[in-house]
Amino acid sequence: MVRQLIVEADGGSRGNPGIAAGGAVVIDGETGELLAEVGVYVGIATNNVAEYRGMLAGLQRAYEFDPEASVHFRLDSKLIVEQMSGRWKIKHPDMQVLAQEARTLIGNKNATFEWIPRLQNARADAAANKCMDRKESFQS
């Protein structure tokens, strides 16, 4: 049986572009247990790039728990959800590279994307903000 992991991811920038970071939490899909929190400091970037970086950091951390897991992403970025689901084109070159990196990591494994309201994404938002405050990446 394939393990189900949930990645809640977010990103932010203070200015657009500005100081930016992504954040994510990894949750066991069966038990609801919080397995990890990760923040990735991006430097100066747009909010959308930071969102992608948060999603990628969460994906990489999830695969550290189980490289064959089915990953369900929950993001408050409609842009990333629609782009990664293949419904919207990716026009920005930086985001094309990040989306391809995610697709390569996912390979032929199962990954689904769900949009959630910002208020339901508080843990990932907090991780991104903590990372921006520290100006350095972290993981637990």
Automatic annotation (TrEMBL):
A molecular function annotated in GO for this UniProt entry is: nucleic acid binding
Residue ranges of coiled coil: none
Q: Which SUPFAM superfamilies match?
A: Ribonuclease H-like
User: Which CDD domains does the UniProt entry name for this protein?
Assistant: RNase_HI_like
**What are the residue boundaries of the RNase H type-1 domain, all occurrences included?**
1-140
Keyword terms: Isomerase
- Pfam families for this protein: RVT_3 (PF13456)
Under the heading Gene3D superfamilies, the entry gives: Ribonuclease H-like superfamily/Ribonuclease H (3.30.420.10)
EC number, UniProt record: 5.4.2.12
Going by the entry's taxonomy, the superkingdom of the source organism is recorded as Bacteria
Looking at the keywords, is Isomerase present? yes
Stated name of the protein: Putative phosphoglycerate mutase
Specify the taxonomic lineage: Bacteria, Bacillati, Actinomycetota, Actinomycetes, Micrococcales
